[in-house]
Structures are given as C-alpha cells and as structure tokens.
Amino acid sequence: MTHPIPNSALDDRLGIVGIAGSGKTYAAMGAVERILAKGGRAIIPDPLGVWYGLRLEPDGKAPSPFKVVIFGGPHGDLPITEHAGAIVGEACATMTESAIVDLSGFGTKAAERRFMLAFLAAFYRRGAGPPVHLIFDEADMWAPERILDKEGGEAAKLLGMMETVVRRGRIKGFIPWLISQRPAVLSKNVLSQVDGLIAM
After folding, report:
1. Distance (Å, rounded) from C-alpha 170 to C-alpha 43?
2. CA distance to 10, 107, 129, 165, per residue, from 195 (Å)
3. Rounded to an integer, what distance in angstroms lies between the CA atom of residue 121 and that of residue 107?
C-alpha cells in the first residue's frame, strides 16, 4: 500500500486533518517511523497518550528499533508535572534523541496549556541545529481559532507561541506538523502556514 504521505513531503510543514477515527495519528505515526528510520529526529507533545507506540512493533509487544525518550504518562521514562514545561522544553531542544511528551495524565486543559506554553517558549529559545520535526497532535488545543474569555491570557500567549514556531521556526530547523479532527477551530493564521494539507 502506498503511504498517504510521500517521502518528498516528509520535510515539509504539514497539516493532517480528518474526522475522528479517520487514521490521522496512524498515518502521522507511520511517517514519523520513516523519519526515524533514516536518522531524523522528532519531538511529539502527546495529549492523547498514544504515541508511545513508536517504541513498539506493530504487534504491540516487541520493542521497535526506535530509541525514543518518553516524558510523562504511564509509559514514561521520567514523570512530569504541569510545572515542568520549561525544563522539559530545554531538554528536548538540546538532546539528540527523539522524544514524546505525554500530557495525557494532566487533569485539566489549563494544566496542559500551562505546560505547553513554557515548553514551547523554552524549546524555541534553545532550539537551533539539525532539523527536528515537531508533531502537534490535536493542534487546535494549542492554537484555537477563537479563545474564550474564561481561558485567560495564557491561552492567547500559547497561540502566539504556536504562530511563532510554525511561521518562523524554519530558521531554527523546526518542521511542524499539525494534526486535527477540527480544522474549523484551528487557527487559520497557523494552519495557513503549512506547505501541504492531507485530508483523511
């Protein structure tokens, strides 16, 4: 079967959209495996707690050949809290390994936003070097088209940080991918920066 993301597009900024269950994350994970297999690096903030599968073969039991560090979550190498965003962001920016940052154990959206704001600010500040893919699953959580008053200034700052990473990150070697089942509520200022759009 031909993979929906061709090799020639792997180093482009991509948007992957489609309804729930359409295979967005599965397609992205297969593409990331191809990136890792050729020696590339990926950093994956994971609000769903599913990307740990990169460390497993398709049978879900045997270990895969990919040495990916996992921060947080039930499969994590190191636990994290909502206040660890800056230190994890700095670690991910300066390490040579790929990493998954599992946010699925955080209790609230506010906690996830707090972590991600500090994480992205530190990653952007310290990052510069060989290309690195940034995979934003559920990207509309970090870059919504509309921010509610109750979400406060932190949500607006996070949106601004996402715009900076996606729009200007190329000069630092960042290759962002945006995955969303709700493209209508994903910031158009962010989504419009992608080089290619994959509709599942």
Report:
1. 15
2. 11, 34, 21, 14
3. 22
3-class secondary-structure state, position 123:
helix
Nearest Cα to 48, choosing from 14, 72, 69?
Answer: 72
Q: Residue 61: its pLDDT value, please?
A: 81
pLDDT, position 39: 93
Question: 110 with 153: CB under 8 angstroms?
Answer: no
Amino acid letter, 34: R
> Which residue has 């940052």 as its token pair?
101
pLDDT score for 120: 96
All residues at 6 or more sequence positions from 50 whose CB lies less than 8 Å from its CB, including other chains = 25
CA dihedral 117, 118, 119, 121 (to 10 degrees): 80
With CA atoms as reference, report the closest residue to 164 among 152, 176, 155: 176
What pLDDT score was predicted for residue 190? 92
pLDDT under 50 in the chain at which residues? Answer: 1
